[in-house]
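Board work, copied verbatim: Delta-aminolevulinic acid dehydratase
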Amino acid sequence: NKISRPKAAGNRSVDEITGSRRLRRMRKADWSRRLVQENHLTVDDLIWPIFIIDGESRREPIPAMPGVFRLTPDLAVKEAERAARLGIPALATFPNVDMKFRDQTGSHILEADNLINRVTRAIKDAVPEIGVITDVALDPFTTHGHDGILRDGIIVNDETVEQVAAAAVLQAAAGADIIAPSDMMDGRVGAIRDALDANGFSDVAIMSYATKFASAFYGPYREAIGTSGLLKGDKKTYYLDHANSDEAVREAEQDLAEGADMLMVKPGLPYLDIIRRLKDEFQMPTFAYQVSGEYSMIKAAAANGWIDGDKAMMESLLAFKRAGCDGILTYFAPQVAEMLKG
Ligand code: PBG
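↓ predict structure ↓
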């Protein structure tokens, strides 16, 4: 039972098929690949999110985020110094607040000397040349892990906005260079802008978490700030439905109209289409947050020997550049900065 050799499809040569266009020509050597490379990742693209705990000279590993630690303010300063040496432009700080400071309304966010404000002061004192971005949201401060004031099962928009705007002023007073509201309440960007301007902080910028999607990829972060056991229900009444793209454009448009200086898309890799749409539509500084779950997926696969962790890290970050990002918030920041240097 002999299988006959399949017949060639036609009589055309490859040159006839391609019209002599040989797209592999420029890929033939490292030098020519470098010459035609369209997008580049540099240290200037990196924002490093760090987790803070109270105390001194202590760092706690975060099991769901191998290689990431919660740092006491003094160690956060050390890392800020390291970041500055590496040329990383900015840090984003996220506090894990002691349970005794958490309540139903997240009132501790209004303490001028709370953990987030103390660490900002400490970093700006020691390393004034590095940018500090503070997340202004209630979730590290509430006993229910929601980003808003929760009453009768409802996240109350306008009261939350008032509180978040007041907190933003305290963060600016502590030295924050950029305020990043991540709660997705309606009207928060405009309210924060007004509050900052009214208190003499007109030079403090706003990076809006303009399109923040209800996502499973935030899991490890919630462990990091200690909200995973607290959160009841989900955040679908305020974060975007991850099925939607037009709505994301409307959110970004609204935030820009209210005064956002920069846009952010979050999570990152599953939302490259949104990044590209926003960049094309608005031509504004556009950032992606490669969130905790994206980081941990790469780390987990690499730890199992299933992928090359360093290569996957670099490929994922370059993908953000290709999609139109001006920068990326990534837990890989110091590692990438070291690699780019080497
Ligand atoms: C909430 C907030 C979240 C993240 C940063 N700020 C998401 C959430 O808990 O719902 C996620 C960051 C990450 O996953 O790396 N204000």
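The pocket of PBG is lined by residues 135, 137, 139, 147, 182, 218, 221-222, 235, 291-292 (CB under 6 Å).
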